[in-house]
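pls design
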């Protein structure tokens, strides 16, 4: 089933109240989970990359090398000098 809950509720195949309640429960559980991860992990999670970040960075380096992009190369305009307005 690829249709969203709102689409199915709009077609009368699902109860709008059930879709709303399910969405609210998902929102609440996601918020609590995010809060707990931040509370328990805190700054430690932000300051050092974990295995997933290292894996993603590794894939990005391999893809960049395959495309011929040099490390440290940024696209677009160079950064503005400090103190100058854009």
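designed seq:
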């Amino acid at each position: 089933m690829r249709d969203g809950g709102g689409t199915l509720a709009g077609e009368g195949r699902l109860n709008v109240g059930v879709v709303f309640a399910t969405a609210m429960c998902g929102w609440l559980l996601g918020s609590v989970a995010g809060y707990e991860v931040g509370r328990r992990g805190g700054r430690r999670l932000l300051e050092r990359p974990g295995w997933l970040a290292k894996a993603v960075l590794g894939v990005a380096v391999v893809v960049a090398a395959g495309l011929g992009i040099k490390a440290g190369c940024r696209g677009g305009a160079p950064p503005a000098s400090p103190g100058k307005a854009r």
